[in-house]
Amino acid sequence: MYSRIIRLSVLVVSLSLITVNNPLQTSIAFAGIGYVVTYTLIPRLTKSFIRVGLKGKDLSKPPPVYEIAESMGAVSAITYLFLMFGLIPFIFFKYLVSFTSLSNDESISDNYATQYQSLANNRLFPHNKLAEYLSAVLSLQSTTMLGFLDDLFDIKWRHKFFLPAVASLPLLIVYYVDFSVTSVVVPKFITNIAGGEELLQLLNQLIIVGNYIVSKVSGLSFGTLNDYVVTEDSPKLLDLGVFYYGYLASVSIFTPNSINILAGVNGLEVGQSVVLGIIFLANDFCYLFSSNVPQAAYDSHLFSVIFIIPFMGVSLALLQYNWFPAKVFVGDTYCYFSGMLFAIVGILGHFSKTLLLFLLPQIVNFIYSVPQLFGIVPCPRHRLPKFNIKDGLMYPSYGQLQESNSVGKNLVKFLATFGLISTRRDEKTNEITEFSNMTIINLVLVWFGPLREDTLCTVLLAIQLFVGLFMIGIRHTVGPWLFGYDNLSWGVS
Ligand code: UD1
Ligand code: MG
């Protein structure tokens, strides 16, 4: 009853918040709507999901364990996509060209300027941003579909791994047409050390060769546009050309997969996404509330906020059902959807490198997982921690080392020496037979002992939040100092 009244109030307040000429406020309103819709739909859809076979057993609960609905992230994702369609008329400037002015370029642009300025405190986006917006929605939609297909058919790793890069193509093409900046700032310490300049020259030559080959094949030209003015005293730039697009595509492969493998504990998939959302928003608001930020940077971060706020609405509703003890699973659908969202925001918000700082726990988890992901040591189907019925706590889960080759065995010995893994030995031979699965989830249990499932999730989310906020600090203090340049730096020159 109470929950119904709260939902109704959230809905009424949200609807009343929708206004023209205020994208930020309108996206908050849409988040409210997204929350209410997702929260209401999930319990109504669970039976249908189970009926068509989208269900799973919670591996960390005492018997009797019933199957609960899997892939419920689809509800969040689809609600989100619909909301993002609905948001379009409220955040883009309505550009009217009167017929008389169509003959003359100059009067068209005059007309545009007059109309644009006629809106007091205009915060709307111009039309070129609509291409970015639509490409983002398209990429998200295809990635969500990929995740859903994965839930349905359990697609093989080698097949699904590269697909997000294909899904990111619309995004990369809009980036190519509209922004095209492929230069990265070279940290001062690199240009200052002996041989640094020569190294840059060498890299530059390699990039030129790469650009040449790809241009020959595709007919497209790569490189930051020439009208990007670089003065003598500004820091050195390295134009990565076509390799920058390779990097962006890799980011869109990495983020969905990295969220999917930091999973298996109730609340963790959505929880980490919500925490990432908080971190991204905190960073964006640093830009939006600073007085000395260039307009372009302001716009990109407003763009990021507009995408993340409704995402928070649909995710928080899902989290309530997925938190310990989970009533639904979010599925790969949600992991792919949320991972792609962060990739998109980072790419179109023009902070695709800062993005990686915020995803540090995911990166560490990925690197730590590499031996298992690439088959150097065996990787069981599930690496999630092991539930102990007797005390109701989660313990590290183990992989079998006997089946491994000598490289794998030595690697496990090496990691064990540094306490980065826990091992079990054969009583007679004292040989290592098992090793704790290589995820930071298990590592937390190795270091801090057995924990209840919700405590474990909270610890992991707290680490994510702490690292993220710390990285925001690093980004705006050490970053500018290291690179000699930034469009937002705190007390460093
Ligand atoms: C990824 C991980 C796998 C982990 C799994 C759990 C890698 C390479 N893969 O695989 O190790 O076990 O996610 O999500 O790291 N489940 C729970 N409790 C939860 C969430 C999931 O018991 O809180 C179980 C349920 O049985 C659920 C299943 O995991 O049905 C979902 O697994 P799925 O998402 O298909 O696994 P992958 O993404 O392939
Ligand atoms: Mg999964």
Report on this model:
With 493 residues, this protein is mainly alpha-helical. The chain has three domains: 2-182 and 241-358 and 455-483, no CATH class; 185-236, no CATH class; 372-451, no CATH class. Helix content is 63%, strand content 6%. It is built from 19 helices and nine strands. The chain has helices spanning 2-17, 23-51, 73-91, 105-118, 128-153, 157-160, 163-167, 169-178, 188-192, 196-218, 242-261, 268-288, 295-322, 331-348, 354-358, 360-373, 406-417, 440-448, 453-483; strands spanning 55-57, 67-69, 183-185, 237-239, 386-388, 393-395, 398-400, 423-425, 432-436. The strands form four sheets. The chain has a three-stranded antiparallel sheet. Helix 11 packs antiparallel against helix 14. The longest helix has 31 residues, at 453-483. The N and C termini lie far apart (56 Å). The mean pLDDT is 91. Uridine-diphosphate-N-acetylglucosamine (UD1) is lined by residues 56-60, 70, 260-261, 263-266, 326, 329, 332, 373, 382-384.
